[in-house]
Each structure stands twice: as structure tokens, then as C-alpha cells.
Amino acid sequence: MQWKHYLFLIPVSILFGCVQTMPLRNLASSPAGATVQFFYDSQGGKAEAYLIRPKGDGPFPLIVLLHGDSWVRAGAKRTIPVAEQFSAELCYAGLAISLPGYGMTEIEGDRDKDIIAGVVLDGIAKVRELPWIDKKSVMLYGLSRGAVFAATLVDKIQGLRGVILHSGAYDLGRLYSDTPAQWVRRSLNPNGDANPYLFSVLPEVSRWKAPTLILHGGNDQLVPTNQAFLLRDRLEALGKPYHFAIFPDAGHRLPTEGVREEVISFLTQNVGSACER
Questions:
Q1: Domain holding 131: CATH number?
Q2: C-alpha triplet 254, 221, 69: angle, nearest 5°
Q3: What pLDDT, in 10s, does the model give residues 34-87?
Q4: Phi, psi of 96 (to 5 degrees)
Q5: Domain around 224
């Protein structure tokens, strides 16, 4: 599934510091306050990731960021400013992973949720080995396309304390029927099959334990707002903890400051700041 829109918490034009590439074996000695690029083995190939270590001694909660799409398939690099913001404001370590088909990840299967899950889980496992990571405190943040696949991982990550789903889709069959964007339909069904296999995470919600924040635009012409309501209604019916925020005038791109306020409030309430430790 390919998404031709991407969305981030803050504008990508904001410049971030110089990123150095570091061997996986040296990640434990990553400099405080720095962002490093590294590669790890997963699903028969090499996956690209970026790791942001906050200033201080830790251990730091870990927030895992899954990117949206872009025309150039830039991958995790474009979420570095978001991860750096979490590092500066809440002292969270940030892990941004380039999913299959994006960035410098050399793994096939950009539509395969099981392969994508394997790549993300392998990356989390590698980073959890670091002495300055709090192994029992992990958050997951999916943006647009990344939210689709983040939702498939909620019941698979140990120590998950919060999930942020930003402009995502949760029942792809309904999305295929409801979206007014023809290119979204073609992306979901590139071969024009009469009955394409399109997964839904809604049956899996009964296994979710972590609090969930759902963010969506009330005028989204790519992923209709009913996707957010479908997930909300399922969480409500099951008595699962969640917070729901619709931005009435927004499309697929949500207002920066409004998103920031919702996300920081949600994380502060459910995880807290590590800067005070």
C-alpha cells in the first residue's frame, strides 16, 4: 500500500543537527543529545533506523516512530525532527525506522504487514538492549501510512505504554469503499482484483492494553474520518482506554500546534516526563 501524502508533527523544513552513521555494536556509546543512523538485520535484509539519545543518564522511555509516505520514499529521515522534539521536551529516546521500500532499508514487502511488523519488532529489540533505554516503557507513534501498520503492532510490543495513531486507516476494506481518492483505491488494489485482500485491525483491538490517542482531520479527503470513528467505537465498546481528537477543519494534514498539545498531554498523562528523573 502506497500513500502519496505524508504528515509530520512539525514542519520538515526545520533543520536538525548533523546525523552520523554508527555501527550497531557502538550504539551504547551514542553521544547524549545526538541523532545517529544505524542499520540492522531483519527479514532477510538490512533495515535503516535513526536513534536519538536525550541528554542525561537515563534510563529513558523509548518512542518508536513509523513514517508516512512521500513521493521520494524518504522514510524515517523525515521524522527526525519529531523524535528530536520528544527528546528535548520529554527526554524520550526516539527510534525512527524506515519501513520496507523506504529510505535505505533494503527489504522487500512494503505491503506485507507481517514483514513490516518483523522489521519494527527487530529494531525495537536491538535498541532495548542498550543500558540507557527503559525496557518497560515504550510508546508507538504512527503517522498516516505508519499509523496503519502501527495499529497492527499494538498487541505485539511488550511494555507498550501508549499508542498514537495520526491520520490512519484501520479497516482497509472500508477505506477502499469509502475513499474519494482514486489513487488510494489503486494503491490498495494495484492489480485490480475483484476481491482484494485488505486487512482490518478492528478484530485485534480486543487484545490491546495500552492507552490509545486517535488524531484525525474532519475533512480528510484521503482517509475518511469514519476510519477514526470505527476505531473509537471499537475501543469504547471494549472498554479500552483511549483519547479521541478530531480537528474539524483539517484535511489529511493536521494543525501542528493542535497535534503537539494533544500528543504532549497524552504522553505526560500516561507515561510522564523523563526529564525529572
A1: 3.40.50.1820
A2: 65
A3: 999 999 999 999 999 999 999 988 899 999 999 998 778 889 998 999 999 999
A4: -110, 125
A5: 20-270
Asked whether residue 13 is assigned to any structural domain, the reply reads no
- What is the H or E stretch that residue 42 is in? strand 35-42
Query: Is the residue at 127 inside a domain?
Result: yes
DSSP state of 222: S
Specify if 12 maps to a domain.
Answer: no
Closest among 159, 264, 252 to 213, alpha carbons compared: 264
Look at residues 157, 204, 201 and name the one whose alpha carbon lies nearest to residue 62. 157
Give the start-end residues of each E strand in 187-241: 212-217
Task: Provide the domain count of the chain.
Answer: 1
Q: How far is CA 86 from CA 65, 100, 153, 191, 209, in A?
A: 11, 25, 21, 40, 23
Cell numbers found for residue 237: 465498546
pLDDT in tens, 139-186: 999 999 999 999 999 999 999 999 999 999 999 999 999 999 999 999
Cell numbers at 243, concatenated? 483519547
Cβ-proximal residues to 152 (8 Å cutoff; 6+ apart), any chain: 113, 116, 117, 199, 201, 204
165 within some domain? yes
Q: How far apart are CA 21 and CA 10, in angstroms?
A: 24
Q: The pTM is what?
A: 0.92
